[in-house]
Amino acid sequence: MSRAFKALVVNKSDEGQSVAMAELADGDLMDGDVTVDVDYSTLNYKDGLALTGAAPIIRHFPLIPGIDFAGTVAASDHADFAPGQKVVLNGWGVGEKHHGGYAERARVPGDWLVHLPEAFDTRQAMAIGTAGYTAMLAVMALEAEGVTPDSGEILVTGAAGGVGSVAVALLAKLGYRVVASTGRADEADYLTSLGAAEVIDRGPFAEAPRPLAKERWAGAIDVAGSTTLANVLSQMRYDGAVAACGLAQGMDLPASVAPFILRGVRLIGIDSVMAPKARREAAWQRLAQDLDTAKLDAMTKVVPLSELPSLAGEILTGQVRGRTVVDVHV
């Protein structure tokens, strides 16, 4: 049954990009075989880029942004989904070229959806969001490369952000000794509460990298890219592995081949947008198993849809701690 719903819409004109609340109807949604009543979305770094126009994330105007959502199936022509089921969506170009999660209603191809594990409600699903799901993919990648708790210390860069916070919590619960790097010294207690054994300043990682530095890390999860990632690679122990999943510092990589050919270091790219469904389902099942929901709640705040335009700039400048859940109904 068609109904009106509230949405945040981004438009573009000769004067530039604009963001405004709007009332839409089901006929305004894009093609898909599953319609979802959205409960919550979330704010990721990519959402900040989309809302501010700082990068050309949105490729179709007007568009409802929001690369995540969780809610209840309202109608379905897809064999795997039925009305009343709880679902979660991450990526697939939603919020970039297909209407996204910053609305009370969404319609998407069912192949993009994942059944929400019973361990989580829809608010917790968006407390995880793409950031937490990406963190889980990164942890799984390190495990696949043979990095175990006995291998040595694991570094997490950008640790106070969304990906970093979940990565710290996951790795700590799995028994790793986690070292959290951050530019915010006042977040040390927060990171320790998530399970970090040590908190270090990110400053040295911004310095010009050496081809090889003193070996320290058995594994690392990096959200920064650029000089930070180059420094991390130079400090990896023999046979270490780095999961790279972000570009907060930049898309360049001023590194040397030395860590790869002299220490056997592996650099693994983590893509959350187009990851195959089987890998997504495995990641969500691992999150249900390995993520401490008390720590998840501690790193999460809930904001109304109307606050997103002002928060978008803050996440780009590293002022947002942990995870931000968006209540699309307020």
Descriptors for this entry?
Rossmann fold; alpha/beta; 330 residues; 15 strands
Characterize the structure shown.
This protein has helices at residues 45-52, 122-144, 162-173, 188-194, 226-234, 258-262, 277-290, 293-298, 308-316; strands at residues 4-13, 16-25, 34-43, 68-76, 86-90, 105-108, 113-115, 154-156, 178-182, 198-201, 217-222, 236-244, 266-269, 300-304, 323-327. It contains 9 helices and 15 strands. The chain folds into 2 domains: 4-116 and 299-327, Medium-chain alcohol dehydrogenases, catalytic domain (Quinone Oxidoreductase, Chain A, domain 1), CATH 3.90.180; 129-269, Rossmann fold (3-Layer(aba) Sandwich). The model has no long low-confidence stretch (mean pLDDT 96). Helix 6 (258-262) links the parallel strand 12 (236-244) and strand 13. It is globular and about 60 Å long. Helix 1 crosses helix 9, helix 2 crosses helix 3 (162-173) and helix 2 crosses helix 7. With 330 residues, it is an alpha/beta fold. Helices cover 28% and strands 28% of the residues. Strands 3, 4, 5, 6, 7, 14 and 15 form a 7-stranded mixed beta sheet that branches. A 6-stranded parallel beta sheet has the order 10-9-8-11-12-13, with helices on both faces.
